[in-house]
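Note to self: keep these together.
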Amino acid sequence: MGRVNTPILSESAKLALEQDFKTSQVHCYRMRCQVILLKSTGRKSEEVGEITGMTYVSVNTWVKRYKDLDIEGLINRSLRLAFHVGQFPDEDISIPVEKGYKIQ
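Structure:
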């Protein structure tokens, strides 16, 4: 039996992830949202990886980044840098900023 790596989501965080999963035009961001949603239900990383087409190592990496950085951790680092300097490449990626998430 491995260690437990289940993110605990508040209702607002779950709703934000579900909304982004359904509406984002960025495929990799949608898949990362799906990873967090599936892991929060208590599924094993291997099972989530099979569903999303990722390895269990990638699943665990995204869960760790979500735990460390919240939803902004699911955004590509290059885009987080663009948020930091105030440049928004397109409306869809800027959703976390519009929702009031703190971008550092």
